[in-house]
Design brief:
- By secondary structure, the chain is α/β, with parallel strands linked by helices.
- The chain folds into 2 domains: 165 residues, Nuclear Transport Factor 2, Chain: A (Roll), CATH 3.10.450; 250 residues, Rossmann fold (3-Layer(aba) Sandwich), CATH 3.40.50.1820.
- It contains 18 helices and 12 strands.
- Strands 5-6-8-7-9-10-11-12 form an 8-stranded mixed sheet, with helices on both faces.
- The relative contact order is 0.13.
């Protein structure tokens, strides 16, 4: 049986930073959608309500007829008719829809909502083209993660947390400073600033029941290392992000905010300004050398947690061809999915991504880097890790850590990850945590 991510179609928003713009919206306010038959105004989220109703009713033929040619090539009427039954088989009986949002991404309108089932809540995102045809559909985890009181009490014995704000220009991002409990008065700690991967991530990088940044922050605090994590601008501003932050590119999406976070962190009384580090994950990992080069304060080192070494479109193509067979899609359908994904990206963003040279920036980096790779990561693979190893082998005390039994979020896993595997909580790999902590602490001894 195909699982929840069977509906992980042409708007596969969790794959890349480019695709995150489809989910969060990074341009103008949503424009009114007109019914193609009646040509009468309707509620902005009515197209998604209709689509969900048709999925429930097994009306795949109606959906198919209103889909783009790319979707029609990727999915049959039979597959569309099966989606809802497969969702309920895994998530339990349907309860309700709620929390609708809408946005405009270039020539595409995007509507999303929470779909509540008995055992699990999912986020449904649908993409519509300029004439209202269905261009993409995604069901992804939308779990509400609750803190374990016993774990919280235990954490309070070795760490404290307080709210901070990363503010510059029109940008204001809420964040959390996590501090080890000092054993002596006036103790100043090394600091790791944590930089997100793709998508509109919160400060914890929440995905399903997993919160890898929060878990890493607490693990480092136990080892005497402070961390600063913050909500990503695409998470905070959604459809308004271009109004406050400018054009779409890696700098406005990631780098500028990370630079400001480093500056804030180094100014805090509890932090040793000579021991400030940057840790990037996924997209943020590949940008660590760029962040260091633009930093306004000294950076003692960088951690590159599953960093891609290749261009966005190359990695996206590889990811889609891995995911497509899991959804019962053939090579032609995967190629159609890939073409549609590229078509949703602002051209300026895609041009920037293609022009970016992460390996060259890594070679020029003035600070030591730790490159961390994972054997069960389908998003950033051994190909990328080997490219980094070759590019950085001769320079500046760079280090490398390969963890065979871990996935893209450095969770311990015994098999290759799939999109569906993130529905389950798995703890961070201890080798990964120790490797990152040891890198930071050893740099502090120099």
């Amino acid at each position: 049986m195909k699982k929840i991510f069977l509906s992980y179609l042409l708007a596969a928003a969790t794959l890349t930073s480019a695709a995150q713009g489809v989910t969060s919206g990074t341009s103008s306010v949503f424009s009114a959608i007109q019914d193609l038959v009646a040509q009468t105004p309707m509620s902005p989220h009515a197209p998604l309500e209709r689509l969900i109703g048709e999925l429930q009713a097994g009306q795949g033929e109606s959906i198919y007829q209103r889909a783009t040619p790319e979707v029609q090539q990727a999915l049959t009427v039979t597959q569309l008719n099966q989606i809802w039954a497969q969702l309920e088989a895994q998530a339990g009986a349907f309860i309700t829809t709620e929390d609708f949002h809408h946005s405009n991404k270039g020539k595409y309108d995007v509507i999303d909502c929470r779909v509540c089932f008995k055992n699990l809540s999912l986020r449904c995102t649908a993409t519509f083209d300029a004439v209202g045809r269905i261009a993409g559909l995604l069901f992804a985890p939308d779990a509400v993660v609750k803190n374990d009181p016993a774990a919280e009490a235990e954490a309070a014995t070795y760490m404290t947390e307080r709210e901070v704000t990363i503010a510059h220009g029109k940008i204001s991002l809420p964040g959390t400073l996590c501090l080890p409990k000092a054993k002596e008065a006036g103790k100043r700690f090394p600091l790791v600033v944590m930089v997100h991967g793709s998508g509109p991530n919160d400060r914890d990088e929440t995905i399903g029941p997993n919160r890898p940044f929060r878990e890493m922050a607490h693990a480092l605090a136990r080892r005497g290392i402070a961390t600063l994590r913050y909500d990503k601008r695409t998470y905070v501003y959604g459809t308004k992000v271009n109004e406050v932050g400018g054009a779409d590119n890696y700098d406005t999406e990631v780098v500028h905010d990370a630079v400001e976070a480093l500056k804030l962190g180094s100014s805090l009384a509890e932090i040793n300004p000579d021991q400030v580090f940057v840790l990037g994950h996924s997209l943020g990992a590949g940008l660590v050398p760029r962040i260091i080069s633009q930093s306004q304060v000294p950076v003692a080192g960088g951690v590159m947690w599953c960093a891609s070494a290749r261009a966005l479109d190359v990695v996206l193509h590889e990811q889609i061809h891995y995911i497509a067979p899991l959804q019962g899609l053939d090579t032609a359908a995967a190629e159609a999915m890939y073409a549609q994904m590229l078509a949703t990206l602002p051209q300026a963003y895609l041009d920037f991504a293609r022009a970016h040279r992460p390996l060259d920036e890594g070679r020029a980096c003035a600070s030591p880097l730790l490159v961390v790779g994972a054997g069960h990561d389908y998003q950033v693979t051994k190909t990328d890790y080997d490219l980094w190893s070759e590019a950085l082998s001769q320079g500046k005390g760079h280090q490398f850590l390969w963890i065979e039994n871990a996935d893209h979020c450095l969770r311990t896993t015994t098999e290759m990850a799939t999109p569906n595997s993130y529905l389950q909580y798995l703890p961070l790999n201890e080798k990964g945590v120790e490797g990152i902590a040891n890198f930071v602490l050893k740099q502090c001894q120099k």
